[in-house]
């Protein structure tokens, strides 16, 4: 009787091996499900990126607004007869090549001022 019990227990373990550790076992399935969820998240992010790129391509093909915006911000281009004004905060450094305004000339005092010539 002991031999039969030992044989049945061994058979039970042999049957359980493929279920837990085999090619289609529970552990392998759980690992594959984890890989699947990671791949699905990556695909969703790439689909979002592709949709943004597709809309940008459509804008570049159809309208001039996107081209103009890119030229302004990426290439710092201006339209003809357009003036560029940049407002800096107190804590921002001045860009290189910035033009500093000349100091204001104070008017002469009346005592040192030359007399005005009468109009003729």
User: Can you give the helix content as a percent range?
Assistant: 55-70%
Shape: elongated
End-to-end distance: 143 Å
- Rg over CA atoms, rounded to whole Å, is 40 Å
Question: If you average the pLDDT, what whole number results?
Answer: 79
Summarize the biggest pleated sheet. none
- What's the total helix number? 3
> Helix-strand pattern, N to C?
HHH
Query: Can you tell me the residue ranges where pLDDT is under 50 for at least 5 consecutive residues?
Result: none
Strand count: 0
Structural class call reads mainly alpha
Strand content: under 5%
GO cellular component, one term: plasma membrane
Cytoplasmic side: 1-3
Subunit structure: Part of a complex composed of FtsB, FtsL and FtsQ.
Keywords: Cell cycle, Cell division, Cell inner membrane, Cell membrane, Coiled coil, Membrane, Transmembrane, Transmembrane helix
Write a compact overview of the structure shown:
The protein has 120 residues and is mainly alpha-helical. It has three helices and no strands.
Notable characteristics:
mainly alpha, 120 residues, elongated, cell cycle, FtsL/DivIC, cell division, cell membrane, single chain, Cell_div_FtsB
Task: Report on the architecture of this protein.
The chain has 120 residues and is mainly α. The chain has a domain at 17-74. It is 57% helix and 0% strand. The chain is built from three helices and no strands. The protein has helices at 2-21, 26-62, 65-75. The longest helix has 37 residues, at 26-62. The chain is elongated and about 140 Å long. The mean pLDDT is 79. It holds the Pfam family DivIC. Residues 1-3 are cytoplasmic.
